[in-house]
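Students often ask why we bother encoding 3D structure as a string. The short answer is that it lets us treat folding as translation between two languages. Here is a chain of 204 residues written in the first language.
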Amino acid sequence: MGQIASDAQTLENNTMPKFLLNTCRRLTIVLLAFSLLACSTLTAQPRFVVSKDQLQQVVGKRFPLRYPVAGLLNLEVQAPEIRLLSEQNRLNAVMAVEASGAALNRKQTGTFEVEFALRYEVSDRTLRATSLRFMRLNFPGLQPMASDMLNSYGQTLSEKALLEVVLHTLKPQDLGMADGMGMQPGSITVTERGLVVDFVAKAP
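And here it is in the second language, the structure alphabet:
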């Protein structure tokens, strides 16, 4: 009987350290995982993503647009097809356009192309078109003189069509976490799939 008790005590002494060691190891792993998660949360900057489809849907609502040109022509501009120029961090918009009026024998169809950047407007939480660059206004059926005249009006037409146009509006809930961290939208990066809005610290 005494031998049995002695064997049991020996077994307990040999087993407990291993159990405690395994427990400590598990706790260490769990604490390390939580530490890494906490560090990741603190260092990762919040960001907001806007898809190309979302941009296309919003900007399309303001078209078609109609503009008179020098009292001789009228241009009707259709909704643009948005293209993402990630390498230039800009967007491209190609619009179908129709010209008509007293200066033409018949209606002419063509294309109107513009490139632009984006900026964030704090007052109404919007992403807006800025830094517009007129590319071309092409009417294959027009005489060169008439085509040149229209292209001279291109930059003005670009600004009327897209300057400061809203492409997306952030909702209050989109900014909730960032606002609580004292941050607001900053840089806007154009990627192959859409826009990435990074957040920066608010100015004091």
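Translate back mentally: The two ends are 79 Å apart (CA to CA). Keep this in mind for the problem set.
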